[in-house]
Give the backbone structure.
Amino acid sequence: MSDSGPSAALTGAEWAWLREIGLRLRLGRVRLGLSQSEWGNRSRVSRVTIGSVERADHVAALMTYRRLAVALAVPLDELLSETATKESWSSRLLRLPPDGRQTG
């Protein structure tokens, strides 16, 4: 069985991780007060893809996750971290100014 391509089966742990990434992205978007369309314009990612990634409907390309992280002003490694908890991620987002710009 091939382990690549759209038909590759993901494990339960992998789906859980994708759902967590989607939740992190949604929390960040909401924190910035952005609609999916507005975020799409900022990140150059379609609204449909953003919705699909937030719901963990499919695995997006790495560049998609990078663009979304940049538009949230968060490091890609933090977005994709397997060790971050919902609490630590929420705390990180609460430190973002509402316009998403880094200070300091």
About this structure: DSSP finds six helices and no strands in the chain. The chain has a mean pLDDT of 82. The radius of gyration is 14 Å.
